[in-house]
Amino acid sequence: MPLSRGYLDYVLEQLAPLGAVRARRMFGAAGLYCEDLFFGIVSGDTLYLRTDERSRPGYVARGMEPFRPYPDRPEVSMSYFAVPADVLEEPGELALWGRGAVQAARQASGGRARRGRPPGGRRPGRGR
């Protein structure tokens, strides 16, 4: 199912309490960035947030599934899990889950924001 602009706008509005969250379209989905950290994916009108050992049990306990980027290879999954609908509908609760996802992304990046090319931008110093 393709990503709808309306759903992406809704997700970004709900995530506004996190601060400057932006989306970058990629491969029929959208990557979500906060503080230059890739912390979420919107695919098929489902929001997936980055997890780690601390946050993942909360998603699993709610019966949420991991993001599977290859429909023909369901055994391949990533560290991103679907967000429950009731969490998505409550901005305060979603902000808590979102902060956990940003923290998981920060830890995965070694404690700092991603360096190099900004989302949607060119690498500094590169010609056209």
Keywords:
128 residues, alpha+beta, Yope Regulator, Chain: A, five-stranded antiparallel β-sheet, 4 helices, 5 strands, globular, disordered C terminus
Structure description:
A 5-stranded antiparallel sheet has the order 1-2-3-4-5. The longest helix is centred in the C-terminal third of the chain and has 18 residues, at 91-108. Helices cover 30% and strands 21% of the residues. It has a single domain (5-108), classed as 2-Layer Sandwich (Yope Regulator, Chain: A). Strand 3 (37-43) and strand 4 form a beta hairpin. The protein has 4 helices and 5 strands, in the order αββββαβαα.
The CATH architecture designation is 2-Layer Sandwich
Total count of strands: 5
Mean pLDDT value = 82
Count of the separate structural domains: 1
The helix content, as a percent range, equals 25-40%
The rough form would be described as globular
Please report the number of helical segments: 4
User: Unreliable runs, pLDDT <50, ≥5 residues?
Assistant: 114-128
Percentage beta strand: 15-25%
Q: Could you name the CATH topology? A: Yope Regulator, Chain: A
H/E element string?
HEEEEHEHH
Radius of gyration: 15 Å
Kindly provide the name of the CATH class: Alpha Beta
Termini separation: 35 Å
Largest sheet: 5 strands, antiparallel
CATH 4th-level superfamily:
YgaC/TfoX-N like chaperone
What's the multimeric state?
Answer: single chain
Order of strands across the widest beta sheet? 1-2-3-4-5
